[in-house]
User: What shape does this take?
Amino acid sequence: MKAYVNEAIEVEKAGLKVDFKKNTEIPEELQNKFNEIPSMKTAFESLTPGRQRAYILYFSKAKQSKTRESRVEKCMQQILNGKGLND
Assistant: This one.
């Protein structure tokens, strides 16, 4: 355990940073809705990055396009209200 703590201290002293991979690929169905309703895109962009990511992951997990479309439709009002997926 001490070894891990000492290693963490050395990393902190060295100033090393972790580069996180950003998965910002917006599903096609969500992008289509942004094109139809510009205010939805504005509302989505005003959400915190974590909330945006939660929505993108939720929409992307569906295998069929029809399911992704229904998820976008279902969450549309929540996004417009500035709410997160689990709010």
